[in-house]
Amino acid sequence: MVETLSGDGEKEYIHMVKETAKAMWGPEAADRLGEHIERTAAAVYAVSNYPLEPATEPVTRMNPGET
C-alpha cells in the first residue's frame, strides 16, 4: 500500500520541497528554479511511491551478461 502525506500527497510534497529550497537558497533562487524544483520533486514523489512487490528484485549488475 502506498502512503501519502494527507489529502493530495504529491502537491504537499512539492510544496515542502519548494519551501526547503527557499530556506536553503533564498526566495529569488528558488523562484528562478521553481519549474525545475517542481518537476524534480514530482519525479522523486512518483519513484518513492512506486509499489514494489516481494517478487520484484533490484538490478544487481548493470550488464546481465557479466558475471
How would you explain this protein's 3D organization?
The chain has about 70 residues and is mainly alpha-helical. The protein has 3 helices and no strands. It has a domain at about 10-50. The model has no long low-confidence stretch (mean pLDDT about 85). Helix 1 (about 10-25) crosses helix 3. The radius of gyration is 17 Å and the shape is elongated. Helix content is about 55%, strand content about 0%.
A few lines on this structure:
Helix content is 57%, strand content 0%. The protein is an all-alpha fold and 67 residues long. The chain has a domain at 9-48.
Summary keywords:
67 residues, mainly alpha
- The chain-level mean pLDDT equals 83
User: What Rg is obtained from the alpha carbons, in whole angstroms?
Assistant: 17 Å
Number of helices: 3
Distance between the termini: 35 Å
**Into which percentage range does the β-strand content fall?**
under 5%
What's the overall geometry?
A: elongated
Spans of at least 5 consecutive residues whose pLDDT stays below 50 are none
Can you write the helix and strand succession as a string?
HHH
How many E strands?
Answer: 0
Percent helix range: 55-70%
Major sheet characteristics: none
Oligomeric state: single chain
Structural class: mainly alpha
